[in-house]
Amino acid sequence: MRRRTGFLTVALLALGACSRPHLQEPPWPAPTPLNRPAPAARGPQQPTSLWSEDAALTRLYRDHRAFAVGDLVTVIVVETAEATREASTDVSRQTDVSAGVSSFLGMPQHYGLPDLYKSGGFRPSVGASTENSFQGSGATKQKDVLRMRVTARVVDVLEDGNLVIEGRRQVEVNRDTQYLFVRGIVRPKDISADNTVSSIALADAQILYGGDGLIASQQKPGWMYRVLDAVWPF
Length: 234
What we know:
The model is unreliable at 15-23 (pLDDT under 50). The chain has a domain at 87-138. The protein has helices at residues 2-18, 56-60, 214-218, 223-231; strands at 72-100, 125-157, 163-173, 176-186, 196-198, 203-213. Helices cover 15% and strands 42% of the residues. Strands 5-1-2-3-4-6 form a six-stranded mixed β-sheet. It is elongated and about 125 Å long. The two termini are 48 Å apart. The chain has 234 residues and is of the alpha+beta class.
């Protein structure tokens, strides 16, 4: 009976190791609803007009850059951040204390005893010396480089004509998920002729990049290490 229980336990552990890890939902904000304005009324067009909606010349000279709610624009994410911080502390303190009593309430200094130690009298004294020092130093250095592309959607057009864009991208490869979220405000003139815009031109930019899966889980310390690190007093 015990042998069967052991085999069953080993089989359950093996099945658990082969199971697909649970991937968390990316922490990006909820999608912004599209507030499409009502289409403007169009006047009658002449059948022989060169600028009708279906004319080839109309499509040839049309501006293909995003300018209305629902249009798409490609965001070229190029972000580089580098920070360095150093700090050092050196604190020391030394204290010397000494005290002596030559007479106390008229008591004799010898108590009728010979001066055995040739000290010249009985003078109780107290002395103490303390020294405290602390030295500490620390340095941090961080450098992040992100280069990606994501197609965003125009979710709103502000009164000044600027466009509010929002885009997200999620890619899963070999049980590892990578996600990218971009949101910001862009001026129409910052959009190039090929309908792309750099992330540097985004105002109030929100760029979230992360991942979940096997690679991300291997970069995290185990639960026992986290518990000991939280309760360790030193």
